[in-house]
Amino acid sequence: MPGYKSAKQKSPLTETERDLSGPSAGDVSEEGFVTIDNVSMNYGDFTALCSTSLSIPRGRICGFVGSDGAGKTTLLRMVATMLRPASGQILLGGVDVVKSRRRAKTIIGYMPQRFGLYEDLTVEENVDFFMDIFGIHRDERAQRKERFLGFSNLLPFVDRLAGNLSGGMKQKLGLACVLVHQPQVLVLDEPTNGVDPVSRQEFWDILFQMRREESVTILISTAYLDEGEGCDLLALMHRSKLLDSGPPEVVRGSFSDLEEAMIHRIQEADEELIHDSFTL
Question: Structure pTM?
Fold first, then answer.
């Protein structure tokens, strides 16, 4: 099925890393830090997102998986204040992303599928540019540059043009750039798509570190089901609807792996849709 890559391939996320990645996946009873309440989005007559509700506690990684065109990117763009919902409400730590958009933007780090690095600038110049945008003062600049380029393993490459970086290094630089203002919420749209396994591992190491040390809440869409298995929560989407959500083991249920569970749930939803169309 288009839209994801099998969890049966060798995972870049080891069992040890899953165990140490953060709070227990089953402990999700905390009050939601990211609250998505009955949100919909339409483009003319096309429904891109239909009455979606989801609550994500602070310091959790929520992975969005599902078929192509399911509405994952649309939902993440609305959380990141890039799109205005047609209806419903999105709150980030109590801040309404529509009514208080400017304030919400200060607590969000957003990395779209095609992140806008300046390839004719060096690694350091790209980071400096984003610190300028966020108004980071001189006494903080050196410290943050050292930190975010350090754990991204990019310090040896500060003078290299971004256009000369490998795909994985570009993604790590993009992540460093969206982290410089120390956001409380990270919104990442398929950031590891097409990246080699080693770089994927390093990218997730950074996410686990940010969640563990800073309690950053992370919303990430992924085409790799092994990455989905490593999240605290999963949101399964198909045809503009949220089909299921919860810890990976709950979404997986009695099936042998997440792939089988997803295929079953999506086929079940499609059968219900076909049945409904014949009974109208």
Answer: 0.87
